[in-house]
Amino acid sequence: MSENKSDQTEVPDGADRPANADAPAAPGSSGASSPSGATPSGDAAQRASTDTPASASAVTPDVPGAPRIPIEVVGEAGKEAPAPAATAAKDGAAQAAASPRPGAAPAGFGQAPDFSAQHPPPPGSIPTDPPRYLRPSDSAWSVFGRIVAARARQLFDRAGQRITQRTLRIGVSARIFHPEPGASGLRGKTLQYLEESIAHWVMSRDVIVFMIPTVGHQGMLHPSNIRLRDYAKHLDGLLLQGGADVSPQTYAETAPRPEWPGDRVRDMYELELLHEFIESGKPVLGVCRGCQLINVAFGGSLYQDIATDVPTAGVHVSEHYDQHRHAITFPEGSSLASMFPGRREAIVNSIHHQAVRSLGRDLTVEAVSAGDGLIEAVRYRRSPFVVGVQWHPEFHRAGGPELLDCTPLLDTFLRAARETRF
């Protein structure tokens, strides 16, 4: 048996072969016909019928006497299929191009995934109109301006909340104990203090109380740049407490008796304090002496002694101190009448031997004594809240249920402090 080397075609490993290359043809079959219907040439039939081995060392010998049937592979739609060698070369190049180099990242690595391609949004879900906050005439600067304005409003609102939520700070003017000549110890020193009940009355509404001392900017020992206006700036309201008589010199009169000189030093200190709080727009509440000082501050005068100046008047002070009381009435339309709706008369304590004589400018009467008509309360019309009462409301809670409940007076004062502190 001899090998026909000229009739063998070496096919590279892995190359595609015709589908019917290894199948023996049935005797008498004409095989696949060419597109023109002619019988293929001898060389083409011989190449098509040749059994190509997988390797060069294994060659299948020709079988003698076996008829050779020419076979030609026809492609799709009657086109001739490409040669096996060309197909193998093309597939090998495509596989080499698709296979990455060892250690190289796969194609598309590091790119952002396109989720819209995998899950496209439903029709009509993509807005085509501009956002609602944009106007037809808007520019980049106008939008930026609105953003800045909104941010500024937010900051101001937060600052306002901090201010309104801060605990109120109420200042109380100091009582002054002057040194006694020749005395030793504390009696030889100047003392400034406040009475406990006045502080606790204000603190009962969860308010911080500060006693305001006199300032020593003219002192030789401890000079300071602090002024009373600094207290008016940082506090929310002022309460003028009771104490010594107002000096007759303060309202341009002389004392009829040497034992009634009043306290000129305290007058000057409290008058300055009063004007600083009024100029700052802060509320002021005067109690007993504080009511008289408000009247004097606006040009009014006082009865230096009620029993001497008004002999027909009732008793307004006695040895019973805060246990002494009398009736008062509220004029119609007064602010005190609105604080105590439905009441025209009330019982208050009475611990004063001086009273308002001539009313100061821009002041109105808020209450009078029921028996003699002496002025018991005043209000300054040109400020949100500047009120003086002749009685001591801080003593009423311990005095009995028949006394006027002065909580509405305190609440109105503190409400004005909240409204005017910023």
TrEMBL record:
Gene Ontology molecular function: any one: hydrolase activity, acting on carbon-nitrogen (but not peptide) bonds, in linear amides
Residue ranges, compositional bias (Pro residues): 119-130
Coiled-coil region: none
Highest taxon in the source lineage: Bacteria
Gene3D superfamilies the record matches: 3.40.50.880
PROSITE patterns in alphabetical order: GATASE_TYPE_1 (PS51273)
Protein name: Uncharacterized protein
